[in-house]
Amino acid sequence: MDAKFLEILVCPLCKGPLFYAKDAQELICKPDRLAFPIRDGIPMMLESEARELPADEEVGQ
After folding, report:
1. What is the mean pLDDT of residues 29-37?
2. What is one GO cellular-component annotation here (predicted)?
């Protein structure tokens, strides 16, 4: 993902910043504990596409 592109993307729910998990190819919203997948280089920013992060799953920085 392009760093400049990541700077303008925000969580569609809370409008907060997203963390890019390169290994998992996901954009993570820490406050909402949601992981939005990236497919073929395109972020899927719909709530229905997001994966809920379990309480015990470590969220990157």
Report:
1. 96
2. cytosol
